[in-house]
Amino acid sequence: MKKTSFSLLILIILLLITATILEKLYGTPWVASNIYGSTWFLSLWALLTISALIYIIQRRLYQRPLTLLLHLSFVIILIGAAITHYFGINGQIHLRLNEAPKSTYIDTNYEERNLPFAVSLNDFQLIYYPGTTNPMDFASYIKITDSSQINNSSLHKISMNNILKHRNYRFYQSSYDSDRQGTTLSIYHDPYGITLTYIGYFLLFASMTLFLLNKYLSLRKKEK
């Protein structure tokens, strides 16, 4: 059981490294939907959590705080991944210049969902590399109308390197229309699952660091 747990842990760490690279290429919504919130990734964490809990009970490792912290992180990550999988929202919204504000978007199942505010496109800019016709960046200037806030309207810039965050919704620049009069934004909403997952990752790496530090100090103590 010990070998199984550590093998699964190494596999998951490698997947996390891969996910970090893919996030730079395809963006957070894609990684959250296809990796962090996917059924196979959730199942992998479940297997690791179950095998780790069995190992703890068999060896009575719950009496060791560091071991308990390490395996507690597995449980937190599993819960966070489950929330992302079952409750996370991922979709797209298409906006055109001079069109009325939109308060709906299309999710990954091609179903229309409501936003708690309205979004409209005020301007769009395509930026080229100097002296070339190759696009370097493209930016959408978005107006958000939100009756729940004191300043019920606000302007924001969304580009490839600039994410818009509003009421736990994240907007990412996805693509643009060929006539440069419209833009498509990716929408991601998962305020609780992703937070729990990051807390779990922090506890995981903190406990592993403390394990290594504790082992190092023990070796130094023996040498003396």
Q: Strands of the largest sheet, in order across it?
A: 5-4-3-2-1-8-7-6
Mean pLDDT level: 83
Low-confidence stretches: none
Which radius of gyration do the C-alpha atoms yield? 22 Å
Q: How many H/I helices? A: 5
Q: Structural class, judged by helices and strands? A: alpha+beta
Order of helices and strands: HHHHEEEEEEEEH
Report the helical percentage.
Answer: 40-55%
Q: Strand percentage, roughly?
A: 25-35%
The count of strands amounts to 8
* Biggest sheet overview: 8 strands, antiparallel
Distance between the termini: 35 Å
Overall shape: elongated
Helix/strand layout:
Blueprint lengths: L1 H25 L1 H9 L2 H21 L5 H23 L1 E8 L5 E6 L4 E17 L6 E11 L7 E7 L4 E3 L2 E8 L5 E8 L3 H31 L1
Antiparallel strand pairs: 1-2, 1-8, 2-3, 3-4, 4-5, 6-7, 7-8
Structure report:
- The chain is of the alpha+beta class and about 220 residues long.
- The chain is about 50% helix and about 30% strand.
- The protein has helices spanning about 1-25, 30-35, 40-60, 65-85, 195-224; strands spanning about 90-95, 100-105, 110-130, 135-145, 155-160, 165, 170-175, 180-190.
- Strand 1 and strand 2 (about 100-105) form a beta hairpin.
- The longest helix is centred in the last third of the chain and has 31 residues, at about 195-224.
- The chain is elongated and about 70 Å long.
- The two termini are about 35 Å apart.
- The mean pLDDT is about 85.
